[in-house]
Design goal:
The chain is an alpha+beta fold. The chain is built from eight helices and 20 strands. It has helices spanning about 65-70, 115-125, 130-140, 160-170, 190-205, 215-220, 240-245, 250-255; strands at about 20-30, 40-50, 55, 80-85, 85-90, 100, 175-180, 210-215, 225-230, 235-240, 260-270, 275, 285, 295-300, 310, 320-325, 330-340, 345-350, 365-370, 375. The strands form four sheets. The protein has a six-stranded mixed sheet with strand order 6-7-8-3-9-10, with helices on both faces. A five-stranded antiparallel sheet has the order 13-12-11-14-20. A hairpin with a 3-residue loop joins strand 16 (about 320-325) and strand 17. Helix 2 packs across helix 3 (about 130-140), helix 2 (about 115-125) packs parallel to helix 4 and helix 3 packs across helix 4. The longest helix has 18 residues, at about 190-205. It is elongated and about 80 Å long. The termini are far apart. The model is unreliable at about 1-15 (pLDDT under 50).
Length: about 375
């Protein structure tokens, strides 16, 4: 009989600890023959912490699902190693790993009731009937489906079916739960509701969640930390606010949210900041040069909401003219052509009652960019 444990539904919220749950070290995965080789992962290293909601984010084909399948045991690495709490997983079959997976398709048994779907894995592990009944009751309460145990999956909505799949995966208390784009089949409103629900479940159970998605907003909403992947590599790892506010690579800045890119030359650098010169001679200040040498060409990234629109006679700033204005309700988007450059900048201004100034297409303007909003990219 399994050891008695506290009900996840009543457990205190747990935060990520410094303990490493999953340690991925220099993992490479090749598919196909040597003549037609596909490098799905290329020397990937990651340390995912215990009790963490960790997201693998990237476009289709970036390697995120391949990495998830390696952790689950559905694939084996070509080289490198994966440890779970210090124990090697390489070569261990899926059923021997304390890891469960929730798939996009839910994979529920249509002929079984909701309760029997949740009970199935416990039966395979030889739990007693009393223990199974108690755990099923707790799991259905955890996902707020305690009144639906006798229904079949076809009698449930998509969101409810997803909750059943989660309850089944959490029933035997895996050390790590893997989620392969589990919300992509849901409509937008339900997907947003399930994002909150998933984070609640992870917090209440204290189980390490590893979530795969290509949806940037989804990743920012739920993750304690995330890794942005591209072409089989991990480009940057950090908290959502770190990756949004301080991207180090152009792909990361471009993939997460909207970003303006400007080519410039580092004019000078000091402890209190750096000065960059655009090709027109106009200058931008940044908080730091990030190791670039004076005279080097760099790419600067600036988020649209960090730029201030001002009248052309309102002091310093980048001169330009408004090409297009798009109203979004909560904010207005201004597309501004920069004077002397074959480039435009996107500026987003929140719509507030009593705003001091409205700008229109054709208006000359100046763009003010605070130094802390200017990010200097590695590539």
């Amino acid at each position: 009989m399994p050891p008695a444990t506290a009900s996840p539904a009543t457990a205190n919220p747990v935060t990520a600890s410094p303990v490493t749950a999953i340690d991925v070290r220099e993992v490479t995965k090749l598919f196909g023959s040597p003549a037609d080789e596909v490098r799905a992962l290329d020397g990937v290293s990651l340390a995912i912490r215990e009790n963490e909601f960790f997201t693998l984010l990237g476009p289709s084909g970036c390697g995120k699902t391949t990495l998830l399948r390696l952790i689950a045991g559905f694939e084996q690495p070509t080289s490198g190693a994966i440890d779970l709490y210090g124990d090697p997983l390489t070569g261990l079959p899926p059923f021997r790993r304390p890891v469960n997976t929730v798939f996009q398709s839910y994979a529920l048994f249509p002929h079984m009731t909701v309760a029997d779907n949740v009970r199935f894995g416990l039966e395979m592990q030889g739990w007693s009937k009393a223990d199974m009944d108690d755990r099923v009751e707790r799991m259905l309460a955890l996902v707020q489906l305690e009144r639906h145990g006798g229904r079949k999956p076809a009698q449930l909505s998509g969101g409810q079916q997803q909750r059943v799949a989660l309850a089944r995966a959490l029933a035997n208390q895996p050390k790590v739960l893997l989620l392969d784009e589990p919300l992509s089949a849901l409509d937008l409103k339900l997907r947003k509701e399930m994002q909150i629900e998933l984070k609640r479940l992870q917090t209440e159970t204290g189980i390490t969640f590893i979530f795969v998605t290509h949806d940037q907003e989804e990743a920012l909403t739920m993750s304690d930390r995330l890794a942005v992947m591209h072409d089989g590599e991990v480009l940057q790892v950090g908290r959502p606010e770190e990756l949004y506010e301080h991207p180090t690579r152009r792909f990361v800045a471009d993939f997460i949210g909207e970003t303006n890119f400007l080519e410039a030359t580092l004019a000078d650098s000091a402890a209190d900041g750096a000065r960059f010169r655009l090709d027109t001679g106009a200058e931008l200040q940044a908080a730091r040069a990030h190791g670039h040498a004076v005279g080097s060409r760099v790419t600067l990234a600036v988020r649209p909401e960090r730029v201030a629109l001002q009248a052309p006679d309102d002091g310093a700033g980048l001169p330009g003219a408004i090409d297009r204005v798009v109203y979004f309700g909560t904010d207005t988007s201004y597309h501004v052509s920069l004077q002397g450059l074959d480039a435009a900048m996107l500026v987003r201004v929140q719509n507030r009652t009593g705003a001091a100034r409205q700008f229109h297409e054709g208006d000359p303007v100046r763009l003010q960019v605070p130094p802390e909003a200017v990010q200097v990219l590695r590539d």
